[in-house]
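tool=predict chain=A
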Amino acid sequence: MTNPMYSASVPVFKQMLTALSDVLKKAEAHAEEKNIDPNAYLQARLFPDMFPLVRQVQVAADFSKGVTSRLAGVDVPKWDDTETTFDELQALITKALDYIGGFQPEQFAQSESREIVLRPNTPKEKKLVGTVYLHQYGLPQFFFHVTTAYAILRHNGVEIGKRDYMGAY
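tool=predict ok
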């Protein structure tokens, strides 16, 4: 039997990261077709105080690995987030998909009640139980960054729509 915490996280992350990869491919093709410097997209942001596209993708990948790791009770791997090109972002997404794809539903046993501590030993420390962490923090954060990456590209003329955002399900 599949664990509901696993079902509500890993397959969702896989679907949306795969869709994000496809959206990035369309953006790269659009830049090439229109003779646009890829950095115009990679560094684009919706508002000056928001992260650019490249950082939105990095944070989405970080949330997928972080949420999955914490729910499974394993240490979150540290990734450098130094990507600057479409190819490097694709490699990051592949790395995230490979990482979360290695988890099994059994690893999520008891995760709904597991205590998750964010920013431990800092003034911003926050303790959440697994269900609250997943449903009220992890997934909303992940979706925010995936959605913002999509919106940046759509705003900049890349021809993508809701089906592209959703991917295959």
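DSSP finds seven helices and two strands in the chain. Residues 130-155 form the longest helix (26 residues).
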